[in-house]
Amino acid sequence: MAVKVLHLGSQKRYETYDPHTPFSDAAEKIYIPMNAPLEEILAAGSDADYIIADAVTYVPAALVEQMPHLKMIHSEGVAFNSFAWREAAQRGVYVCNCKGANAAAVAEQAVFLMLACLRNAGEGDRAVREGRQIEVKERMMVEGFAELGDCTVGLVGFGAIAKETAKRLAAFDCRVVYYARHQASPEEESLCHATYLPLDELLAQSDIVSLHVPVTEETTGMADERFFEAMKNTAWLINTARGEIVDNDALAAAITGGKIAGAGIDTLAPEPVQADHPLVNLPAPYCDRVFFSPHIGGVTSTMFKKAHRNIWANIERMERGERPENICNGL
Question: Are 118 and 314 contacting, i.e. CB atoms less than 8 angstroms apart?
């Protein structure tokens, strides 16, 4: 009997990146929009064996508890903090992710945001469209701006994405430092051209601070008032990790108060971003000190192809009686 797989998210995207192996083609698939009502999900897929969920969708404990055949919840990306992973563990249900699949893509986005901030990309684009190119160019030449290679870049966290970011920064001749709970081996540091520093020293020395930690109880809101006070007032914050890591009000105050230069942000909390969010409502001229991208760092087509191959390989492993890879809930 074919396995039954419940997809929570975009049907079009799932169908686009389905690896179409004999195993995946034989599976029974149900598609439910992200964050659909619990009743709708249960009516369609309460007897499913597996859930594949958009990384930012909500998978509540009530859903896990009412799916008697459920074996695994698999994130389509890396995040899983909106899944009821503790409750899943209590019921013997694995929660897995696609760790590493988006590392190269997010690393590219981090470097892009660094360059966009240093070169004031948002205001520059607008100035050309409004016929103010020479005005902005003259001002930037007088004020001056750094090349990326002039900068010390501090990576907070040193997982797969941070390591890929460090490797790319080496091509710009940056000095790269990192902080993590556990220092990497000398071989890893050499490969990534990165040096360990305690967090306070990293913040004090870095011209760019780039966040690369997961959302946990420890990291939620870690970029707070004290964090920004420890940074250089000429430094930039880059966030391609998760919005929950940053205290939005503290970051807005740090920018308007001149505590830091500004920020390049791919992900904000809450998502979707609301019109009254403090960081999208900064007054002039501070509004030009923040450059946004719409949480696209890890959603390249290459990433999704890797992720969906990984997901279906994990389902096949379980059907063979093997443990899946990239278990996130401690089972």
Answer: no
